[in-house]
User: Which sequence fits this backbone?
């Protein structure tokens, strides 16, 4: 009978602690609407310092190549440009008929190719 009394006392204490924690949660949520009980602490992420880019010994300047035509259809626009070393990728859109990627050699000023998704 003693173990049953101690079990009831322990469970009663747990119920009281649960109600106290629930009340604390309601209080924090009303005072800080963005508060979460098990949210991770904010961690500041330090950006790594970039190493200096080594300079080339024999710099050859990019020669001007005049005007480069991408021959875009009516209503097609360049939605995004991604430079990568000596190439540039032009994303064409916004309609599905226009969707394409055009690869351009920046040094030579030549369109190297077009990639069209299957419709």
Assistant:
């Amino acid at each position: 009978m003693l173990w049953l009394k101690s079990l009831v006392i322990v469970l009663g204490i747990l119920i009281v602690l649960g109600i106290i924690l629930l009340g604390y949660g309601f209080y924090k949520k009303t005072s800080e609407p963005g508060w979460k009980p098990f949210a991770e602490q904010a961690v500041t992420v330090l950006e790594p310092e970039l190493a200096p880019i080594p300079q080339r010994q024999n710099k050859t300047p990019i020669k001007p190549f005049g005007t480069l035509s991408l021959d875009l259809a009516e209503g097609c626009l360049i939605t995004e440009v991604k430079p990568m070393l000596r190439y540039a990728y032009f994303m064409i859109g916004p309609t599905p008929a226009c969707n394409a990627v055009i690869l351009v050699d920046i040094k030579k000023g030549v369109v190297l190719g077009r990639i069209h998704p299957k419709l």
Remarks:
- The longest strand covers residues 77-84.
- The radius of gyration is 32 Å.
- Residues 1-39 form one domain.
